[in-house]
């Protein structure tokens, strides 16, 4: 029995793939972050950012919160802000799936849509202009230390224990980079030989949740020294693997998870032996109105 829905954030399942890896000496485990109550890995960072800001006195119930998001962080912030009775405005591109917009509104958030042509960068610019007025507080997930520290405190330790300290490679999509920064920091402290692999889209690909940021928008929490290797995936690879996950593994996820898994499978094919863990960051139901599963 849990006293609060917040107690259900973290401790997500780690599941061995059944069909994707052929070498019996290489095992690929997927961490199912869609099992968080808000449906994604972003519950961890959102909770840590809000709770830490409240504990420090950076915000109160009277503070007007605002944040740019491409989807999952916004849903998590909306859910947790509602629990703490905080007012939040979430800003995202107008081509975001309706499921994401409606979920944020269901949790009580105000949602503002910016031009699709300007992407998430345009949403970030809009929020920063609002913050300059002095009437808003922005968590700034792209530069907030509490983002990656959430994964240092939870995601990394969970993976370390669930693999009985045997993990050899960790694979994660890179968006805000909080997941890979925090998990890498923890795992490298336990065993510096663990290889950390970040996943980015190829130059001509659009994969929601994975970005290759222009230098001006590169997340300030990102430290390239904490990533041993970057693998690129195409939109086609990500789409195909997302469908395979559902059909072959029974794992219903979004395209960024398919991209990370595609990279992880390619990595497994290179290895003679190893234990690889990859992040499945959310659920597929928030992409049903897109053409992902057509």
Give the helix/strand layout.
Layout lengths: L13 E3 L9 E7 L9 H15 L7 E5 L3 H12 L3 E7 L4 H9 L3 E5 L4 H13 L5 E2 L6 H9 L1 H8 L6 E5 L4 H13 L4 E7 L27 E5 L1 H15 L5 H16 L3 E7 L14
Helix pairs in contact: 1-2, 1-5, 2-3, 5-7, 6-7, 8-9
Main attributes of the structure:
294 residues, 9 helices, 10 strands, alpha/beta, four-stranded parallel beta sheet
Per DSSP, the total helix count is: 9
Low-confidence stretches: none
Radius of gyration over C-alpha positions, nearest whole angstrom: 18 Å
Strand order of the largest sheet: 1-2-10-7-8-9
| Overall 3D form | globular
Distance between the termini: 39 Å
- Calculate the mean pLDDT score and round it: 95
What is the string of helix and strand elements? EEHEHEHEHEHHEHEEHHE
Structural class call reads alpha/beta
Estimate the strand proportion.
15-25%
Summarize the main sheet: 6 strands, mixed
Compute the number of strand runs. 10
Q: Please give the share of residues in helix.
A: 25-40%
Question: What does the model show?
Answer:
By secondary structure, this protein is an alpha/beta fold. Helices cover 37% and strands 18% of the residues. The chain has nine helices and ten strands. It has a six-stranded mixed β-sheet. Strand 4, helix 3 (98-106) and strand 5 form a beta-alpha-beta unit. Belongs to the cysteine synthase/cystathionine beta-synthase family.
Describe the structure in brief.
With 294 residues, this protein is an alpha/beta fold.
